[in-house]
Design goal:
Largest sheet: 2 strands, antiparallel
Strand content: under 5%
Radius of gyration: 18 Å
Helix content: 55-70%
Shape: globular
CATH topology: Farnesyl Diphosphate Synthase
Distance between the termini: 23 Å
């Protein structure tokens, strides 16, 4: 049997690490047991953890201490989990399957699911705002501002609203890309920048390189999601296959066709790798991660 690749080992290590951090944080939310249970159900024991892995990967590419990436990695995953809980609600995408199990509002009820999402969002900023001797106040403030902007009206929430309004309508490729740069790309860019700001001495040039890298993989990630909605199956996806078509969503596949969508994702991956040309081998994991995101099967 072939030994796991360096990327596979890194992914597994990051996934174990972030699971422990997330679990420890949720255990402290003990005022209401049913709410704590729903938060754990929504957040723990599933998912590829791409966003925390990006935080850790950038931290390591800059030669940082991985411990300093724990708080921002947890914060971004709490935000991601909250967004999925709310996405799945009947008023939004009305899905009943997520990560291979019943969605939170099905497993509990709508009210508890809404509150669990709210609590996860609040917990993200609670974690990110916690002081630490190794985190300079300026860098911590940059992380808080970065995540807050990525979540709000000019980020994920705005993208969700555009997506909701676009359902069932005609759209251009330019409009679709603008939508997904907010809906999906903003949080992926935030993940990369959170990792960068977890290391002292990151330069403006490095930040610009990371932004270009993040913008490319953010779009590639969404295109691959659209592709998998057509080519995947419910069991491997962990959510209903064909839900985009069922919900009359505009996607890269519906606009470009399957082969052109694959080609665009591949080109974005190449551009992401090129964005890291100023880095040497310390960024190899990030380069491999860009390819992994585009080629992932589920």
């Amino acid at each position: 049997m072939d030994s796991p690749s360096k990327l596979a080992r890194f992914l597994e290590s990051c996934q174990r690490r972030i699971e422990a951090v997330l679990s420890d944080e949720i255990k402290q939310c003990e005022a209401c047991h049913s709410l704590q249970e729903a938060m754990a159900y929504a957040c723990l024991g599933g998912g590829k953890r791409v966003r925390p892995v990006l935080v850790y990967g950038v931290n390591q590419a800059l030669g940082g201490d991985i411990v300093d990436a724990d708080q921002p990695a947890a914060a971004v995953e709490f935000i991601h989990s909250y967004s999925l809980v709310h996405d799945d609600l009947p008023a939004m995408d009305d899905d009943d399957l997520r990560r291979g199990k019943a969605t939170t509002h099905i497993a509990f009820n709508e009210a508890v699911a809404i509150l669990a999402g709210d609590a996860l969002q609040s917990l993200a900023f609670t974690v990110l705002a916690r002081t630490s001797p190794s985190r300079p106040a300026r860098a911590q403030l940059m992380q808080i501002q970065t995540l807050a902007a990525a979540v709000g009206a000019n980020g994920m929430a705005g993208g969700q609203c555009l997506d909701f309004r676009a359902t069932g309508s005609q759209s251009s490729l330019q409009a679709l890309e603008a939508l997904h740069r907010l809906k999906t790309g903003a949080l992926i860019r935030a993940s990369v920048l959170l990792g960068a700001h977890s290391v002292a001495g990151v330069t403006n040039r490095q930040l610009e390189d990371f932004k270009r890298y993040a913008d490319c993989i953010g779009l590639a990630f969404q295109i691959q999601d659209d592709i998998l909605d057509v080519t995947g199956d419910t069991e491997s996806l962990g959510k209903p296959q064909g839900s985009d078509r069922h919900n009359d969503k505009i996607t890269y596949v519906s606009l470009l066709g399957l082969e052109q969508a694959k080609s665009k994702a591949s080109k974005l991956t190449d551009n992401a790798v090129s964005a890291l040309s100023n880095f040497s081998s310390e960024a190899d994991l990030l380069r491999e991660l860009a390819t992994f995101i585009t080629n992932r099967a589920n």
